[in-house]
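User: Now give one protein:

AI:
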Amino acid sequence: MDVDSLLAFVTTVNEKSFSLAALKLNLTQPAVSKRIQNLESLTGHKLFERLQREISLTPAGEVLLPHA
């Protein structure tokens, strides 16, 4: 796991938004999404539940968060 993807994950959790995380990290929203997708691919688990304009951590995301 690379540090940039973990930083995108933690920032997204803290901001509760992919778009706000992107602003904070000076990235585009698709770049943040791609980093999260890379983590999901590496872990083999979905990390966020994406519901229209709301996101929440899945159980796998909850497990990863303290380690990130």
About this structure: Strands lie at 48-51, 54-57. The two ends are 10 Å apart (CA to CA). The mean pLDDT is 95. The longest helix spans residues 29-43.
